[in-house]
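Thread: zinc ion complex, take 2
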Amino acid sequence: MEHKSSKALADYAEAQGFTVERNVADLPTAFIASYGSGKPIIGIMGEFDALPGLSQKAQTTKEALEVDAPGHGCGHNMFGPGSLGAAIAIKELMETGQLKGTIRFYGTPAEEDLAGKVYMARAGVFNDLDVCLDWHPSYLNEASVQSSQAVTDFSINFKGKSAHAAADPWNGRSALDAAEFFTTGINSLREHVKPSVRMHYVYSNAGQVPNVIPAEASVWLWIRDSKRSGVAEVAARMKNIAKGAALMAGVDYEVKLNSGLYEILVNQAGANALQKNIAFVGPITYTTEEIEFANNIMKEYGLEANGIDGSIHEMKETSKEAVGGSTDVGDISYIVPEISLGAVTAPDGSPWHSWVVVACGGMSIGHKGMLFASKSLGTTMVDLFEDATLRAEIKKEFLERKGAEIWKPMLPDGPAPIPNSKSK
Ligand SMILES: [Zn+2]
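Output below.
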């Protein structure tokens, strides 16, 4: 679904004089746009994928632009162009001889459902960067020093034998029984894991009709924790639960790894450099009409209306436990030092992954945030190109925090499971 967006960004970068490599890591919508030569090499990432069913007009009441079509409920329509804008500003400074080195824009696909960056990372395309940057639409401006949750995504498939559920049930072995034993086990496991662990599942296959004993059943399960090592510990126990469940039901089973993400490795030195620049570029100011738009849309959604917070706050402290949610930026942060920005594109307290974010991302509130992000990342990259001491400080902290951990992609072997691009 993101072919048009990816192409628009790649074509624009090419028209601006970047060398564009498409189909990176065999992902049809992944690309890298480079300009300049030699060291330092600074990377900046841009996403462009959307979410299903969230199509929305840029207005304060809920109405799809196109019924049942996807929409940018995570603001990635601004993420890609905002980052590319910053890369282009750096290219212009290189053209006039004011900066030296290489600027690389990474068009990173399918963040929401495929973890596209991990496939790109597995191909080694981030390895030679000095620093990598990204940003994300938000309702707070911040140089982020927060980590994210590590996650691993599994499918647990049970295979039994079908039979008539009334005539000869003794001949059947129910894969659904096993799936139910499995989720019972997972729900008991909850009591015996650390409070930072999250486990969520759905039955992705639970049989088709009641009068056939299900020969196949599947549970789709995600396990999260503040650190990769914590997830691995719980995953090992989960595998035993799957084995036990299969044994009880007398069926076969398979635990299939779909993908996994690392937590973000924070870089305080990088965040400090970014903080200086957001204070230089910001705050974002809004017109009376924009504040009215923000308040009306929040009331319409059923939430408290507190305007839009375009101010620049003091940098927060890193929380001990990661906040809920995971991102494939985490993997990149284990390969090279990573700097992350949050920029305001929606009203204060906005419900994320909702039509509110889509609406604001299609009008001036979102566009102002995108330009703010672009300028803040651009000025930070100027510092990174010019200041070798800053780069060394960022690298030193990265190596210290990373310690002995060796990044290993949590992906099944073989190419990415790319969905049919024609499907809706
Ligand atoms: Zn997002």
